[in-house]
Amino acid sequence: MTATAHTVPGTATAMAEAASLLLDLLDDSQLERMVAGFPGEPERSRWFYNPSDHGGLTLTNCTPAQRVAALRLLATGLSQAGYNTAAAIMGHELILERQEDWPVLPGWGRVRDPLHYAVAIFGEPGSDEWAWRFAGHHLSLHYTIVGGALAAATPSFFGADPAEAPLPGGGTLRPCAALEDLGRDLVRSLDEGQLAAALLAPQAPPDIVTGNRPVLEGRLWVVPPRERFRAPDKLLRAVLGELEARLAAAEQALGPAAMEALAWSRAPAGCPGRGCARTSGRSSPRCWAPTWTGSPTMPPRPIGRRSPARPPKTCTSPGPAVPSPVSRTTTGSRAPGCSPSTTTPSAAATTSTPYGATRPVTSAVTSSPTTTRPVTDHPH
Fold first, then answer.
1. How far is it, in rounded angstroms, from Cα 323 to Cα 339?
2. Could you tell me whether strands 156-158 and 139-146 are parallel, antiparallel, or unpaired per DSSP bridges?
């Protein structure tokens, strides 16, 4: 693993200094929860994007000074735009909490909590090999430093739930707007033949196809709900049962042919770069992209302007100022310059949640070390 030309100079040093400052503020019990050895497997390879126990010390269990130090560490791994997006995602928990009628579960506590984001450090900051992560609902960032340089920044997950929320004066809060709109603009730029190649299935998959797997290999389908949580047995049986029932119903509606078309594999799918002409004065991607699921018949929207009405949705974040090469815990490769992002339009305006409330449906995209694939509406 080596750093790339896109690495901001001094990134690894800044990370080590911020991590050391944070560790100096912790007591013994907090250190025990945050720190592990390097490489720290299998824990370092585990990751989640839902409101699960992400491992490490949460901001909830930190003092104000410790929280500031943790956020300083987070900022070292992101550009200004990336940090702004992360902050908006964390704040979105308050919006989602209200939409879901402030859910609290026995043995779980507050379900949507803007402080329920955890920091974990593997190894000694500043040593030859160490790593750290910052993770919580819809925000999961992982960094590995080798030989004094940032070697990997994957997996990296940004999402927003709800994808858009109203603001005073007719404004709209959309943390992932730019990249999401770019993906939709790309799909709208395809001609009939290109769209036929790019469209994998008319329906969207029921959740993120690659899920939270640490390694992508073989042919993959949506991860079972039990595997999306660190301790599924601690969930209310009704909550887990509802998630399992939703997946089963979605798979039945899709049918075997659509499920096969939407499954992940190393073989690229979609419109090949050589088959995409230059459109609107902008070059097409240099890889197989985009792949698309769900109905592509969305109303046209001028670039740079919001449409009057659009279903809620979610997307990847503005990328960090650090590289995203293949990490030790993943396999596969990516074409140079290829980082396709696709989004899936929601099929309905609202959906019931495992907590008995009703809220707008969302969709999300995860950026993994091996590929970026379309995902779907999900009750996270």
1. 12
2. antiparallel
Cross-strand partners of 131: 122, 144
Distance CA 160, CA 93 (A): 9
pTM for the full predicted model: 0.74
Tell me the pLDDT tens digit for each residue of 226-271. Answer: 899 888 877 777 788 888 999 999 999 999 999 999 999 988 888 7
How many CB atoms sit inside 10 A of residue 153's CB? 24
Query: Which among 130, 123, 121, 120 is positioned nearest to 150, based on CA atoms?
Result: 130
Alpha-carbon distances of 22 from 132, 251, 294, rounded to whole Å:
12, 45, 44
User: Shortest CA distance to 103 belongs to which of 194, 253, 238, 303?
Assistant: 238
Q: By three-state DSSP, how is residue 227 classified?
A: helix
297 CB burial (10 A radius; 0-12, 13-18, 19+): exposed
Can you tell me the distance from the alpha carbon of 359 to that of 240, in angstroms, rounded to the nearest whole number? Answer: 19
pLDDT above 50: residue 30: yes
* φ, ψ dihedrals at 180, nearest 5°: -65, -45
User: Strands 118-122, 35-36: parallel, antiparallel or unpaired by DSSP?
Assistant: parallel
